[in-house]
Amino acid sequence: MHSHFFPRVTREEAARLDADHAPWLKIDADGEHGMIMTGDKTFRPVYRALWDPAARIEEMDALGVDIQLTCATPVMFGYRYDAAAAHAWAARMNDYALELCAYAPQRLKALAQVPLQDIDLACREATRAHQSGHHGVQIGNHLGPRDLDDEHLVTFLTHCANDGIPVLVHPWDMMTDGRMKKWMLPWLVAMPAETQLSMVSLILSGAFERIPKSLKLCFAHGGGSFAFLLGRVQNAWEQRDIVREDCPHAPVSYLDRFHVDSAVFDPRALKLLVDTMGEDRVLLGSDYPFPLGEQRIGDLVANHPDLDDTAKAKILGANSQRFFDLPDFSR
């Protein structure tokens, strides 16, 4: 339920959003490889499965994946742009996502993106996309300086709760002051921190008291560093009134308000995650088809020595089926 796509956006189409920075896809002559570009700058090397549904299905077959939910590569979000232009962009990207899924509609499903900088337009596009066939919406974990507890974003989450739209929160635009300049450190250090920041912000701010409990909310990348540091947050809430001033209940009592994916890459980390969240609240995620994603999708769960068959079945499929209201896995 955590994979990405990037459609065949040309430079000309991207320029309708922003000629200097909007993302587009430069495909090599061999048709197998390409580069996501932002204006004139290279952003990330990619390969055919990112934009070609036939290649994606071929790899899913090889990996034993029955159904895959895909969503925008976060560079596509467009939160920095004029809201009207970003709305038109999001709608096109969402339509492209459905076109990709139409290749194998029983096996490929999509999550939408929205122009989060304008709450009315974001809510409108989330509902339109959901009604047109998307199984939920993916949002970035913050909007500039606004974390998920900001009233603007709480309003969007409340809309999704009321409309029955599942939400996947994905880290993006990672915090860095220039020290994390090599070795992909923003992705290795700041990305998990961004995810935990989102989760703890919702808890300690009291935002969960204002958001309907019906909201289906999931955090990518195993919730980042949340499971490992939950004890620290709980201890701080118990010992310091400044931590609990806006949070009426212990942090551990909010674990039933959200889900996480399983993309943690280490059996000990997965065991801690399942022990923390419960086997009903961990969904199979991979970050496919990027190099930092799980290369053998599902292997970490399927081969885990400390998970029983019931837990494995839930994480490998049943939890996602329930969360995203997916059809039966039979093809």
In short:
By secondary structure, this protein is an alpha/beta fold. It has helices spanning 11-15, 53-63, 83-101, 119-132, 151-163, 185-204, 226-239, 241-244, 267-277, 299-302, 309-323, and strands at residues 3-5, 23-27, 33-38, 41-47, 68-72, 108-110, 137-140, 142-143, 146-147, 167-170, 217-219, 259-261, 282-283.
How would you characterize this protein structure?
With 331 residues, the chain is of the alpha/beta class. It has a single domain, classed as Metal-dependent hydrolases (TIM Barrel, Alpha-Beta Barrel), CATH 3.20.20.140. The chain has eleven helices and 13 strands. The protein has helices at residues 11-15, 53-63, 83-101, 119-132, 151-163, 185-204, 226-239, 241-244, 267-277, 299-302, 309-323; strands at 3-5, 23-27, 33-38, 41-47, 68-72, 108-110, 137-140, 142-143, 146-147, 167-170, 217-219, 259-261, 282-283. Strands 7-10-11-12-13 form a five-stranded parallel β-sheet. The chain has a three-stranded parallel β-sheet with strand order 1-5-6, covered by helices on one side. A three-stranded antiparallel β-sheet has the order 2-3-4. β8 (142-143) and β9 form a beta hairpin. α3 (83-101) runs parallel beside α4 and α4 (119-132) runs parallel beside α5 (151-163). The longest helix is centred in the middle third of the chain and has 20 residues, at 185-204. The mean pLDDT is 95.
